[in-house]
User: What shape does this take?
Amino acid sequence: MNKILILLTLAIIAAIIFLVPPIKGLGDLAKIIFFHVPTAWVSVIAFFASAFFAAKFLRTRDFSFDVLSARAASLGFVFVLLSTISGAIFSKLTWGAYWNWDPRQTTIFVLILIYGAYLTLRAAVSDEKVRAKVSAVYSLLSVLTVPFLVFILPRMYFSLHPSPVLNSAGRVDMDSTVLIVLIAAVVDATLIFIQLMRRDSS
Amino acid sequence: MTKSFGSRCEQIAAIVRKDFLIGLRRRATFAAMMMFALTAVASLSLSTGGSFVEPKILSAMLWVVIFFAASAGISGTFDDEAQACTLPTLKLYAAAQAILFGKMAGVLLSLIALTTFILPIFLILFDVAVENFFLLTTTLLAGLVGLSAAGTLTAALTTSATVKGGLFPILLFPVTLPIFLPAIALTEAAFTGAAFEASALVVIAAFDAILILASSILYDYL
Assistant: This one.
């Protein structure tokens, strides 16, 4: 599994460098978008995974779920940082500023805050049982903000962020090579996340 | 059903009364919260030096002051019980839900007291003419309800933490952000008298309800 994953990742990197046409007017650095989208995707997936395992822990009181929930959060924290930095670079290229509190930037920043708060809480509680309970409850409490951040906030404020690949018109506005490489990169990042979740647990 | 609901309400009222009496005897927490708010407003007003501050910034500052003063005041909601080891006894007397809602009501009352104290000072020091007082009151009240619901559960979470300083606001802020953003926009509209979006008020109210419900469900697992 590991070797296949490394090969797949290398192939995707090669495709991004050689196969994908340069983005008009933005230069080669704009290809960072192929890094930004998958990491952003994984940071959201990891957030839900952490909450899912937290709920499982509270129902079963099985500590292995607590371990999984914590690991998803730590991985998610790394991915969300990578995604934010790559997003800021892309933002500088396209909008001219690294940061301007676009709704999407607000959302991802809140995600950083939540991950950070969750990990700080875990570090602050020394008793293992209490730590598991308390962090699971916080994980589920923080998930409540997701509908607001995803659905309500972008309606309240104007956003410059490009719409998702599948936009409201139901039409794909993308070159097919670009789209295939992007989807492959997202799948690859998800597999890397799953692999990292599994490897530590064994 | 009615009887159990009635006794539940009695328990909640008794817990609010108990916390209020203890709070009166040991005024430190309450005084600290008020003084924190006063210090924050004074430092903000001093540093702007009487120059004109935009209503947008003003409303944001008001909510920042309320948030951090509330954090200072309500983070220890469960700490006294934990230190004195009275929480198990309290749980013998009242149902867990009654304890949660009793504490929540107490927190809400102290936050209302905080706001009643700090709002006039804020308005005077920054020379704000409130155009829509009804909107301001409604927004503040709706915001405080959500703040106390999330704050009470967060206080229960941080009780067992070894590192206390700063942890509470870190945990509370992301959870209450869906309340703050519309609340700041509405407060600005109340200051300027501009037209406001009623949907923002609905968002706050809906999120209040979600937070109260979630606290109630999650508290049982602690």
The mean pLDDT of chain B is 88. Chain B has one domain: 2-219. DSSP finds nine helices and no strands in chain B. Chain B touches chain A through 31 residues (CB under 8 Å).
